[in-house]
Amino acid sequence: MNYVKELRELVGQRPLILVGAVALILNEKEEILLQQRNERKKRWGLPGGLMDPGESTEETAIREAFEETGLTIRNLTLFKLYSGEEFFTKADNGDEFYSVTTAYVTNDYDGDLTLSKESLAFETFSPTNLPDQMVGSHRRMIMDYFDTKNELP
What pTM was computed for the model? Predict the structure, then answer.
């Protein structure tokens, strides 16, 4: 049984606060890897997910990227921490939670993209050509990264 299911048994349908991490994986053209998620809405998003007990957010990003894409990512740079009212989610199964998400960036990876039960497809996108059907918070994270990157001297 996983941690979130155990929490749900204890607290029922009350909204939870969950910690997770995502990885902005960039190729040599500064395009970002997105996965089309195997969910009801089939949205595109960043590889990532929820932290397991005892795990760091960096370990979460590495594990989730591997589980969802087959890629081994390294040399992650902490970009930003996201939390607050706008990061409220209602999952397909009706569960509600507020996420505290750590966003990491890397261009150091290897392996072959491999579909998982969570992924329908992979594609790289430029920040000016992101798909319409996208996880909203992930779009914001990508735009924040490229806006910040463009502001640096």
Answer: 0.91
Q: What percent of the chain has pLDDT over 90?
A: 75
Burial 21-53 (b: 16+ CB within 10 A, else e): bbbbbbeeeeebbbbbbeeeeebbbbbbbbbee
Domain for residue 2, yes or no? no
> Does residue 50 lie within any of the structural domains?
yes
Q: Which of 48, 21, 26 is nearest to 106 (CA)?
A: 26
Residue 126 sits in a domain whose CATH number is 3.90.79.10
Which residue carries 């048994």 as its tokens? 9
| Number of domains forming the structure of the chain | 1
Instruction: Determine the length of the chain.
Output: 153
